[in-house]
Amino acid sequence: MLWHITAGLTVANRLSEDGDKQVLVLEAGPNAENLQEVFVLGLIGAGQALTTLNWAYTTVPQTHLNGRVLTINAGKALGGSTVINSMIFPRAEKAQYGAWGILNNDSSWSWNALLPYFKKSEIFTPPNKFQQANGARFERDVHGFNEEQGRVKVGFPNFFFQQWSLWRQTAMHLGFPASPDLGNGSPHAVGVAPASIDPANNTRCSAACAYYTDFADRPNFTVLTNATVIRILWTEQGRESEITASGVEYINANNETQVVNVSHGGEVIVSAGTPKILELSGVGNSSILQSAGVKPILDLPSVGENFADHVNSWVNAFTNSITNDLLLLDPTFAEQQLNLWFENRTGFYSSVSRSLGIAAPSDIFNKSEFNGLLEESEEKLNYFAALLSNGNPLLARGIQAQHRLALDLYRSNNNLPLEMSLRPSFFGKTSFEDRPARTYNTIVSALYAPLSRGRTHISSSDPFVPPMVDPAYWTHPLDVAFHVAGIKLARKMLTTGPMASIYEGEFEPGLDKVTDEDIENWLRGVVQSYTHEVGTMAMLPQGLGGVVDTKLRIYGLKNVRVAEN
């Protein structure tokens, strides 16, 4: 039995391959695969995508971001956030996967061990001549092509903006290597990102597309949509080690409370807002549970802690080039382009992949400057571990271990702090009505490996009350330094080499933001979530404040696992 975001359908599909297993998926949202804002690539963020298909969690006021309340998007539909995301499909640095194995003393969590599963998950379509001419590249040995085993369709789009090529050339001029494949585990480079799309018909391939639509008729694979989970039910137990899930209580589409029982030997796999579900079920920090009116079943203080999220920022500039802004500036043109997509899958709306690169410390700091920043962070290792662990001494050890490993990888230039990407359009907080009616290019700089850690917890026993979310953005000063450096790099990218030929002046932050302090102060007022939140059910040893082991089993529970992204 599962309820899910992205990973839930993945696990459910694979489990149901065994005809002797009965699999039930509970999904709070609808099946939205037939909405054009879901399947048309260029309609990302349109229609219901960021309204009824979005949980839109709000944070508590962020201390280090001028007390602002931010929104964190998360897909509320079958397929989770893969229904509303931007579909880019690269992979991380090999050493960053290896860090999981090091922290858990388990070599099954490493690039080499995980690559076969990455390959098994996809049906990759190599770039055609047109796509290759526009910069798409691939390495055969890191991709999966088996249509029987693979599920997620991956490929490249039918439309490319000219400035993507100009930006890649500029990035290489600034020292970025050219990537032969952004999925090869060496993303310190610049290239065209593959996308989770079906190249045959130029449509999004969400988790629902990949793992449900073609398998909905399996007799042992049942999906209930518009089903909101209330809590997990437990058997009577004599000792904590014997706590066993016996069922799940949920509210169905007719607003009726239902209970589904877990069969003998069965499991519950949680893959959707997991801390909230566990806390409503009595598993978590006992003090927090009691304050929310929930009877504690198992004291597991790290549930909901260790929250990490990417934070993004940008530099946008006026341009004389063709951009997606034309779709807003000219509704008639937008209608023509959408008709073109429906006619032959071409035009602006057939575009999704973007050129991106992951910056290393050497791209943004000189050696002595960066060594100074690392030394300061190392001197305050214990201080920040305690500060970010919310009074949990075991988790403080876990955060200290994470930070120590991250700093070691930074020192060897293998931890990559920033994702840099070019968007051929305006991107930022200024509304369409409040900005000049022009075309823009935007360099997005996203904090890719933050050291700050926050938390999310329930504040009520009511399952319809959203959880409290505190990402504690920018608590760690190294995050701030990286983000300021990212803005400086973005400015350089827009005004250097081939990109300079289409640059017509900066709009945001604005050329009055000159010093690092100016940039930092501006960023505190505008940065926003990139909605890539992770970590709140930490896979760590118990002695480091972990919640799950490397088999994804929750400590202290007999038959409950987590499959969270």
Structural description of this entry:
This is Alcohol oxidase. GO terms for molecular function: flavin adenine dinucleotide binding; oxidoreductase activity, acting on CH-OH group of donors. It holds the Pfam family GMC_oxred_N. With 565 residues, the chain is α/β, with parallel strands linked by helices. The chain has a domain of 55 residues. Helix content is 29%, strand content 18%. It contains 17 helices and 26 strands. Strands 7, 18, 19, 20, 21, 24 and 25 form a 7-stranded antiparallel sheet that branches. Strands 10-2-1-14-26 form a 5-stranded parallel sheet, with helices on one face. Strands 11-12-13 form a 3-stranded antiparallel sheet. Strand 12 and strand 13 form a beta hairpin. Helix 12 packs antiparallel against helix 14 and helix 15 crosses helix 17. The longest helix has 19 residues. The protein is globular and about 70 Å long. The two termini are 18 Å apart. The N terminus is likely disordered.
List keywords for this structure.
single chain; 565 residues; alpha/beta; seven-stranded antiparallel beta sheet; five-stranded parallel beta sheet; 17 helices; globular; FAD/NAD-bd_sf; oxidoreductase; flavoprotein
Shape descriptor: globular
Structural class: alpha/beta
Radius of gyration: 23 Å
Tell me how many strands there are: 26
Question: How much beta, percentage-wise?
Answer: 15-25%
Helical residue percent band: 25-40%
InterPro entries: FAD/NAD-bd_sf, GMC_OxRdtase, GMC_OxRdtase_N, GMC_OxRtase_C
Binding site for FAD: 229
Domain Glucose-methanol-choline oxidoreductase N-terminal: 48-311
Family: Belongs to the GMC oxidoreductase family.
